[in-house]
Amino acid sequence: MELAPLRNFDEFCGRSARFNLPESAQKADERMKKNVLYYQTNYLLIITSLTFLLWLANFAEATGGIFSVVLLVFTLIQFDQSSNVMSHPNGKQILLGLTLFSVAAVLFFWRSILLVTLMILVSTLGCLAHAALRKVNIANNLASMKNKIKSTPGFKLINKLDSHLYALVDSPAFDR
Fold it and tell me: Is the pLDDT score of 14 beyond 60?
């Protein structure tokens, strides 16, 4: 798996980029998929940067939210592998203590968890709005990258969400 190359600023949202509303929901869907595939590294960089900046602005609260989510996921993994924990002489007490501690952390850091979720959602929605509104004038580049684009993380993620992606990429309409 390889990342798509980082696209330059002028092409991404500078003078050569054109924005308009798509004519229909289907056109918006196709435009978003094409733009996300082509600019996936730019979008990943923006989402990561904005989330990091918002995390720095609310460091203590965001760190508490991240800590409680990681703790909750760790507890759920322990429940999934509870046979390993239960083989310990105090396995039930350990699992009960871990569960109570993680629930207390989630309740205590509830606002922080919402803040972390909001940080990621805002930056992701901004990127999706850009992808939907940016007019696709990258067909020649996409057409030449068809085989390479199928090995990128963005393609694999979109393909999991939309089973028709292979049909879109392999269709003649993808080249337009």
Answer: yes
